[in-house]
Amino acid sequence: MTGPTILFEDIDERGLNTIDVYRRRGGYESLRKVLTTMQPSEVVDELMASGLRGRGGAGFPSGRKISFIPKVDVDKYLVCNADESEPGTFKDRELMQKSPHMLIEGIVIGAFAAGATKSFIYIRGEYVEQADIIDAAIVEAREAGFLGENILGSGFGLTLHLHRGAGAYICGEETGLLDSLEGKRGNPRLKPPFPANQGLYQGPTVINNVETLATMPHIIKMGGAEYAKIGTETSAGTKLVSVSGNVQRPGNYEIELGISSREIIYGLAGGPPEGRAVKMWFPGGSSSPVLTGDDLDIAYDFNTLAQAKSMLGSGAIIVVDDSVPVVSVALKLAKFYKHESCGKCTPCREGTRWTVSMLERVDQGLATPMDLDIMASVQEQIIGNCLCVLGDAMAMPIGSMVAKFRDEFEAHIEAARARNPWAGEGPPDPDPVLVQGASGA
Ligand SMILES: Cc1cc2nc3c(=O)[nH]c(=O)nc-3n(C[C@H](O)[C@H](O)[C@H](O)COP(=O)(O)O)c2cc1C
Ligand code: SF4
């Protein structure tokens, strides 16, 4: 059993992307209920009661986030984070493609609760088809009176614009996204001030992930208390998980939070190909510390995964089987973060570059076991010392791989050394530039 289906209940209904079919399935009725019978504070109360936590990565309580918006008479904004750039994550794409009105309905509900009158969807540049679908849905919603001035005669008005990104991972980070939306280079901002106080154009701003917002109409429909009964006490509701890597049935699945991870990886996604075993898996996108094949019975929810020293993140489960060398995964991952680092702060800019160089030395058999200790310690120095968590997003999984697969790293070095021209002579003197990088100089 994987629990109730909420977001994906009608997801394969033909034509659900059109307003007619969406309304026939009860769409926009939650918005009607909100605008005709509820005060903004009551919507926030329902969201609080539901226990909904952000589905974009950090898992912050969604009702509480809206409650932080100051009740002052200035322009307020709601921004939907549809950048979906975390490797392995592709759930928002399916939601937007098949049910764009569910997202729009959630945006209007969230904006009403926050007192926002202007809203934006920031969608990743590669999602061309999904952006076109959303654009068409916005036109339909506006024509039907669910967007624009005086929605459903309530006196509440909201504008909604779609903004296409240009393919930078860092523009998924909420403040980098805001800078990009303002037309600047997408660099993260120093926090505080947090977006709730000074966000887009310095105004109070709520930023939520696509899945978080798309869940709001369902919470209004069923009531926060009912929603909270699904899942666990600290991880309420259902979650869309994107399962990829070495599994037989990769794809998006909606699960009740708290079911076993084995049920997702083997039950839903079919497990690794015949004859293969799970070597390791990322529970929440490539930024999450890896777990191993021994951890498959861990409950899939925010708190249990945190207790296991990993995280639920974006809900992207990447499975790696025992045919894949751990060093190749680590190197590929480090190269990604090095490429995507915006370069604004030193631990991330230098740490990602240095880690790639070090992993290349490991891969070529030029490193020593002591280098693995240095590499692990460098990851620890990155964590918590960066302006945003992109640096941590590389350091946490790399650190976990070195810690959990130390023997394989060492065997990889030995095997590579036996094959390369340095065999028998030991590794060359350490590169002074790399050693300098290791000390953080
Ligand atoms: C490097 C980086 C990339 C991120 N990418 C995304 C993303 O693509 N989509 C997303 O929703 N959140 C992303 N986040 C998380 C956002 O900063 C933010 O926490 C989230 O949009 C808040 O929405 P939620 O409360 O609904 O989860 C990213 C964070 C970091 C540090
Ligand atoms: S941690 Fe990396 S991506 Fe984030 S601000 Fe610093 S350099 Fe930029």
Task: Name the features.
Rossmann fold, four-stranded parallel β-sheet, 11% strand, 3 domains, disordered C terminus, binds flavin mononucleotide, alpha/beta, de novo design (two linked rop proteins), 441 residues, 9 strands, single chain, Ubiquitin-like (UB roll)
Can you tell me about this structure?
The chain has 441 residues and is α/β, with parallel strands linked by helices. The protein folds into three domains: 19-228, Rossmann fold, CATH 3.40.50.11540; 238-321, Roll (Ubiquitin-like (UB roll)), CATH 3.10.20.600; 326-438, NADH-ubiquinone oxidoreductase 51kDa subunit, iron-sulphur binding domain (de novo design (two linked rop proteins)), CATH 1.20.1440. 44% of the residues lie in helices and 11% in strands. The chain has 18 helices and nine strands. A hairpin with an 8-residue loop joins strand 7 and strand 8 (291-292). Helix 2 runs parallel beside helix 6 (100-114) and helix 14 (346-363) runs antiparallel to helix 15 (369-382). The structure holds flavin mononucleotide and iron/sulfur cluster (SF4). Residues 54-58, 60, 81, 83-86, 169-170, 172-174, 207-209, 212, 388-390, 393 line the site of flavin mononucleotide (FMN).
